[in-house]
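Researcher: I'm comparing several assemblies side by side, and this is the next one on my list. It has 514 residues spread over two chains. Same procedure as the others: predict the full complex and return the structure.
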Amino acid sequence: MYHPRVENEIITLGIETSCDETAASILKGRFEILSSVVASQNEIHSIYGGVVPELACRKHCEIIRSIAHESLDKADVVLNDLDLVAVTRGPGLVGALLVGLSYAKALAWGMKIPLVGVNHLEGHVMSAFLAQPRIPLPNLSLLVSGGHTELFIMNELGKLEWIGGTRDDAAGEAYDKVAKMLGLGYPGGPEVDRMSRSGSATIKVPAAMMNSSDLDFSFSGPKTAVKHIIEDYKNKGLSLPVEDICASFQASVVRALINKTLFAIEKTNPASISLSGGVAANGALREAFLRLGEELGLPAIIPKLELCQDNAAMIASAGANRYLSNPKDKAWLDFLEMDPKSSWIPNGD
Amino acid sequence: MKNMFLEAIVLTNSVSMTIEFGKFLGSKLVAGYSVFLNGELGAGKTTFAKGLCTGLGVDKNFHVRSPTFSLINEYRGKLPVRHVDLFRIENEEELQNIGFFDQNFKGVLVIEWANKFNLEHTNDTISIFLDDVDLNSREIKLTARSNLIKTLVELSPLDLKVVNN
């Protein structure tokens, strides 16, 4: 018979397999990370001694169990200690999501404990609270990653309202593609950030949707503009000012992100702002985001890098939070039919 | 076999015109069609796909986005639409692994960077190549079975012309 512990002591296993990373985490209460394991290519290579195709859904199958058990061991927790399983249900590749979902269902069913299906983006937003649990609400959250660029307002812990996002490319994707066009490799977003430090933003790159009156972004425009700038230099037989192009592109992207965040603040009047997702590692964006908070007198939270990138601690936290909002609900134990949701932006659900 | 296929070409001079043409094409598609979208980075594949999806009845307010990172986006229009991007896919094995060859799908497939792989060009395939003439203008080349191309040329709101080889 299942007896949940008191709220701040429940032990949650988080599972994340929505994209390239296989991750598991053990969380205590809503925000205390006991362990967080993300399978890196190196680890996989050392376990399997061979090359594993990076995007293979099969990779998740092969390592999910060992990653979950590693998270238990690192947290010094055994299966019997678990009170809850939280798993990413979407958005993501169906084949990849199914691996985590099936593993989580089997485990929760076998242990007779509840299971929560979590939105990956809600997890990212919750990562700010893992960094700093007492962020004043409402919190305005800017999520920027390889696959997403979204603005959410959170009036109540874990309840997201979507207020804007990209209309085409995600910011991280545009960074990676600009890197490729400049011959900096793919993915090379961080490389563009690094190069731009020694360049100056002297080349005109159109901003990503500065004039429209909504909270949406478009990063396809600046990306294409960079392409034509490169062609121009090549046609004229001039050598490419790679650093200046990087700096100019970066300035355009950061300006759009910050201006839209400012616009969103004016519209929603939050008590705090937070930045999450892999692109939160970008130096210029971090600086500008913190400065924005400072200027407006709003607490601005950027979680540390491990929490910004895909991980399972954020999934465990979002799951625990949902579960604890109504732990007596029988629905948490009725999960066998739960299916993956490939396209799913959280909005009031 | 080759002469069963025809090529047609159209020039657009703005993003909205490119979207408009995509919308026209989308409105003529039925379940089972595949649209291959090729062209360099920044050529307008995702922009074209936006138009296609609008033509396929995907809600205008629904953001059709680049699937480069997500690999496969799914939309509900009059028909289900699967928007795939092979940019990040390195080999056939990965193509298998992402569930690309799912036989049960009954809708329209839109595949960016299709020519990275030797995908079968069937009677229900429309292959599109986008070339960016300048920042806003695009040359859009369509290859498909000849009677389909002829129908499209007849109905096209823009000046779509058959290319005579």
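Model: For your comparison table: The mean pLDDT of chain B is 92.
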